[in-house]
Design a protein that fits this description.
The protein is α+β, with helices and mostly antiparallel strands and 233 residues long. It has two helices and nine strands. The strands form two sheets. Strands 1-9-6-3-4 form a five-stranded mixed beta sheet, with no helix packed on it. Strands 5-2-7-8 form a four-stranded antiparallel beta sheet, with no helix packed on it.
Length: 233
């Protein structure tokens, strides 16, 4: 019996000791004080930027855009706005007008003018030391009423040398007094001949009778010019 009571008392003692052991609160162990304090980083000071007044008299530098364009490469695409406007209807209109004109000509309802020369013709530059020149002109084809006007331009002033000059089979003379430097001569077709465009031949001589140039114009429309440039040296 004593042994039983002793065993019961030992159980109660063990149980009480366990409750006291585990009921105590956990206490954290404080860190070891080494006496070394952490250094604080000093704040970085940034100097304020210098503010410069704009120079109103300095021309701003303009930089060209860089490009890798090379000769022979296809043209780069441009996004720049332009005022050029191509109307696709213009080409259709021109073709239609040509077709109508051709039809009218074929049916005898309109004169065929496709053979006419409608652009001025330049006969180049002639250098000479001669003070005067003589231009001899005539109609080299059938005599059909061709008329011309001869005008000399010197120092930006125009002078009519011959007006309504009737071209015939025989030569007619137009005399020119040259000034130092540039002299411009124009032979303008004043009409079309009865048989076609204005036609003519010319021969240019200096003071000594030397032929400087000879040629002709063919089927000029009204207002078209033969142009010459003389340089007196």
């Amino acid at each position: 019996m004593k042994q039983v009571l002793l065993a019961i008392m030992m159980c109660f003692a063990i149980n009480g000791y366990s409750q006291m052991e585990f009921s105590s609160k956990f206490k954290a162990i404080p860190p070891l004080d080494t006496g070394i304090k952490a250094k604080k980083a000093a704040p970085v000071t940034v100097a304020p930027p210098d503010i410069l007044a704009p120079n109103l008299f300095k021309k701003p530098e303009s930089k060209l855009p860089s490009t890798n364009f090379k000769i022979g490469d296809p043209d780069p695409i441009s996004m720049t706005r332009t005022n050029d406007f191509v109307n696709p209807g213009d080409e259709v209109r021109d073709k239609l007008n040509k077709s109508i004109d051709k039809s009218l000509v074929n049916n005898g309802l309109k004169e065929d003018t496709s053979y006419l020369n409608e652009k001025d013709l330049s006969f180049g530059i002639i250098r000479t030391k001669s003070k005067n020149l003589v231009i001899r002109v005539r109609d080299y084809g059938a005599i059909d009423g061709d008329l011309i006007k001869a005008t000399i331009i010197q120092n930006y002033k125009s002078t009519v040398l011959a007006n309504n000059l009737y071209l015939e089979g025989n030569l007619k003379d137009i005399k020119i007094e040259l000034q130092e430097g540039l002299n411009y001569l124009e032979l303008e077709a004043l009409n079309r001949g009865a048989l076609g465009g204005n036609t003519g031949a010319f021969y240019i001589y200096d003071n000594d009778g030397n032929l400087l140039l000879s040629d002709l114009w063919n089927n000029f429309d009204t207002g078209v010019k033969s142009k010459f440039t003389f340089i007196k040296e």
